Request: fold
Amino acid sequence: MARRPANPRRTPSRRRRDDDSVVVEQSERGRWVGGIHFSGFSLMMMALLVLGVVVLAPNLKALVEQRQQIADLRQHVAQQKDDVEDMRRERERWDDPTYVQTQARERFFYVSPGEISFIVINDLDKTFLSDTTDPISDELTTTSVDWASSMLTSIMTAAFTPVEGDETSKKPSSTPTPTPTETSTEKK
Reply:
């Protein structure tokens, strides 16, 4: 019969003395690797695992990409629904005659009968305009005019100045005016 080798745990580890250092024959890693035993079943399972990863990896990648595309398309659909809702509100506004009239006034400068429209066009030559590119002063300036009293004076003047050709001044007043009464001498 063949003799079994001794158990390394029971035998004392051999030590070599070289320059006062101690070297252990078997390290911790060596014991761990030595404890792994490969059988035919474990090799076949590892091969199936690797094969499964190789086969499934492209499919998983396609799945992730498709999920991303679906999320992008859902976001795009939500944006389009918001756009459709905005367009529906815009169409409803155009059904309102007041809105149409306001747009015609603003865009095409239409006026109602009896109204006068003024359009200011700055068609003056630049040579006739004063140069307004004076440098800006770093100093504060004060004015000697009291703006509050000036504004109040302007409002009061505009409120109580009669307008020429105003029909309201020629209309009869709504309060009755007293009519002359007969005197007592005329009755006799």
Q: What stands out?
A: The helical segments are 28-34, 40-94, 97-108, 147-160, 184-187. The two ends are 177 Å apart (CA to CA). The longest helix spans residues 40-94.
